[in-house]
Design goal:
The chain is of the alpha+beta class and about 120 residues long. The protein contains one helix and eight strands, in the order H-E-E-E-E-E-E-E-E. Strands 3, 4, 6, 7 and 8 form a five-stranded antiparallel β-sheet that branches.
């Protein structure tokens, strides 16, 4: 009897483990749009979110910094959620300064970033 109970317990635990790992959770795929309309204090960019396999996109936008590899802890825009293309207005910039920027998107798996680009205000 104990042997049968042990076998059943192992079988139930094995099935539960298989069910949990069947759905992969992955970061979104994000692309950065070119920077346009650069002025001394503002610029426009944006991005394109093409997948949300890790769950719905809850936040998206562009983040920027005067140092490489900006993250959402730096300056950022908030452009809602969901898939597709969006346009961001980067404001509060300083004239004659080089900025690094990346598009980002957040889902249940975490935050993904596009490749980095840079531009200089005039």
């Amino acid at each position: 009897m104990r042997s049968l109970l042990s076998i059943c317990t192992i079988l139930v635990l094995s099935l539960a483990a298989c069910t949990k790992s069947a759905i992969p959770i992955v970061l979104p795929v994000v692309a950065l749009n070119p920077v346009t309309d650069i002025t001394p204090n503002m610029a426009k960019s944006g991005g394109d979110i093409t997948t949300d396999t890790g769950g719905p996109i809850t936040e998206r936008g562009v983040c920027w910094s005067t140092s490489p590899s900006p993250t959402i802890s730096n300056s950022k825009t908030l452009n809602g959620g969901g898939l597709g293309t969006f346009v961001s207005e980067l404001t509060g910039l300083t004239s004659g300064t080089t900025y690094y920027l990346r598009a980002y998107a957040t889902n249940n798996a975490g935050t993904a970033y596009s490749k980095e680009s840079l531009f200089t205000t005039f």
